[in-house]
Amino acid sequence: LVQKWVLREISNFEYLMQLNTIAGRTYNDLSQYPVFPWILRDYVSETLDLSNPDVFRDLSKPIGVANERHAKDVKENFEDPTGMIDKFHYGTHYSNAAGVMHYLIRTEPFTTLHIQLQSGRFDCSDRQFHSVPAAWQARMENPVDVKELIPEFFYFPEFLENQNGFDLGCLQMSNDKVSDVVLPRWARSREDFIYQHRKALESEYVSAHLHEWIDLIFGYKQRGPAAVEALNVFYYCTYEGELQDPGRAQPRVSVCPSPSSSSSPGAVDLDAIADETQRKALEGIISNFGQTPCQL
Fold first, then answer.
1. Nearest-angstrom CA–CA distance, 58 and 213
2. How much is the pTM?
3. Domain 1-241+264-289 in CATH: superfamily?
4. H-helix or E-strand containing 243?
């Protein structure tokens, strides 16, 4: 697969989808939904110049430090607040069930799932996915918001349209009604956004740097000393099997994503936990925090 990608026999999109599948990601599990990178940082220009490296995000850095100003704070926050678990940089995850519903709120069955998650109503309008430029700006301003993208951003224009006419409320500051997703200025339509965004994914710049992001999500910078150095360590329960804290002599045990994880060395077998309350709590953590893909 790597060889096919290197020889450009398959596209960047196909390569990422294959890696997601091999690493246990699937459309059938919201807590292990396929994850794709933010690849652009220019959402304000009238035209998108893919020959200009400045329009692209630095793919060698986690989304939490895509804004370099956040790196110092993230590094200083690398700690275990309780003294009982492994240290981490981020208490939230770049991919989880709530994040998938956030992006797909206008499309069933994700609309209904979102409403169920929010106790029978839509979330506050300002927290909804209402604008692509605003979503990127949130990543730049808030190191706690570390959501990456989903594959739909590269092929599915319908998720950007409020085709069902859902009442998503109004934004507090502007009082603008939330309906279709606001697009970057360089996109003439939803279809044009998908076309240009997919074109950006297959560009020379991304082709030359995509492996750096893959290292963070699927590869050697996912855990261990390389992850610490890359500011890429997440809450310990998001990792499958054993997670070695560089500061500890012995590996810590975290929850394996698979409910029947007894075959995974060092993982917690949820089925073996007799206390139903404890088991439900662990399942809730896995579902809400998201899961790091299997390391490839």
1. 9
2. 0.86
3. BEACH domain (1.10.1540.10)
4. strand 242-243
Contact 257, 284 (CB under 8 A): no
Closest CA to 183 of 148, 150, 159: 159
Q: Which tens digits make up the pLDDT trace of 149-205? A: 999 999 999 999 999 999 998 988 888 899 999 999 999 999 999 999 999 999 999
Contact predicate 4/161, CB 8 Å: no
Instruction: Tokens for 104, please give them.
Output: 């797909």
Q: Rounded distance, CA 166 to CA 223, Å?
A: 41
Q: Where are the domains of the chain?
A: 1-241+264-289
Q: Report how far residue 29's alpha carbon sits from residue 270's, in angstroms, rounded to the nearest whole number.
A: 17
- Conformational region of residue 224, where left means phi above 0, alpha means psi within -120 to 50, and beta covers everything else: left
41-63: per-residue pLDDT in tens? 999 999 999 999 999 999 999 99
In angstroms, what is the C-alpha Rg of the chain? 19
